[in-house]
Amino acid sequence: IAEMLRDPSLVKTKGLINGQWVEGLTTFEVENPSTTQPLARVANLGAEDAQRAVDAAQQAMEQWRSVTAKEKSSLLRRWFDLVMEHQDDLATLMTAEQGKVFSEARGEVAYGASYIEWFAEEAKRIYGDILPATTSDRRSLVIRQPVGVVAAITPWNFPLAMITRKVAPALAAGCSIVLKPAAETPLSALALAELAQRAGIPDGLINVIPGTDAAAIGQVLTSHPLVKKVTFTGSTRVGKILMEQSARGVKRTSMELGGNAPVMVFEDADLDKAVAGVLAVKYRNAGQTCICANRILVQQSIYERFLEKLTAKVSEFVLGDGFDASVTAGPLITGQAVNSVDTLVKDAVGKGAGVCIGGKPANGKGYFYEPTVLRDLTADMRLAKEEVFGPVAPVFSFENEAEAVAMANDTEFGLAAYVFTKDPSRIWRVSERLEYGMVGVNETGISSEMIPFGGVKESGQGREGSKYGLEDYTELKYICMGDI
Ligand code: ADP
User: Does this entry carry the keyword Oxidoreductase (predicted)?
Assistant: First the structure.
């Protein structure tokens, strides 16, 4: 992989603890899901390394918390500049280890970097408050302080952005961090850490523990007394384990978990816009995002027309290796992922769903699944309840608004929902009734560093990005001053 980079020294294969690149007792292989070829062997760190990293993070934080906001801001800004300077190299690493097409990978680097830029700016806007006093000889105030050492566990679907969303606000707030990236995509994480080093971010503030024994590392990160906050993006199943473990030490948690996003298309919608919106939010990253459309709910009167238009667009996808410029759809992350998608599709088809296009794994090397559109979905199919992390659009039909809202809310998840309609009162009515953390109205490209990203119900708690995202990394301290 190194020979594909302008700056080959961005390929890092060791862990980072206290500013030192460290080996593990063993190594693990990182593979390219488009070709199934090995890319690199990375140090396999474990529980003891995590322990050391937390101790180093605590030490580093003692100094960092008293660095001025302006200085913190300019270090983060320098990191942002370096990430953007190396956008192509970072995107190359990402396409190689994760599979997303190169243009999407470049997009993720810019998106991920935007969180560093944003929190570099927000670092200078952490305010306290003077409160009304209860007696005339007192003054009451609150200040915001760093929450402490943060542990972050991140997934493979956005190998860079899911990290910057956590590391940048942590550093801006005065915290330090120990990061365990997904074992499928450690190279992006390590390159990012290398650039942080080059930016002059002090040793020990960002520690990276690549490893395959996630449970053992997670155990340390959720039980070490010096860790004060655990932030996680991944499955609801693992999120629940981490919350349980963190509860024992009353650690704060932020959880970005699974989704089951509905897209509601009403008969008064602009159909072409709705199709374009679904296409963008369903097939991006081969359907492997937590805000991907999981259930497409279309009003009966426009059902056939919608299916026709969507299927026509989906037939234009070119499946293949993300480095090929003509390719518009990449692979899934593993063979296991292909199997799980296929199982959900087979379940639906077995129960009566129709296949408009796709519906099976693609032939040849690599972990590819054909971009798929399914019709005549019903509530008894697993696709109605479970997140399909793949390029499969299950299209349901509904009669009226009340039924559509009930269907949309009929899930334990509550991350993102989308509505296509031109009726302004319906926009308000439906948006307010949806039990979701985020609602896109006539728009599916909803995420940016300036908005609070997060879910309700079993999709998690806490928000990332925006001014709200910083609060999660601070504690409010009340100071009562008497005898004034
Ligand atoms: P995904 O389906 O995206 O792989 P996971 O929740 O399995 O979702 O993985 C997200 C992150 O959680 C990865 O970094 C993975 O290594 C880590 N992880 C998986 N199991 C555990 C666990 N028991 N404790 C801590 N981290 C875990």
Answer: yes
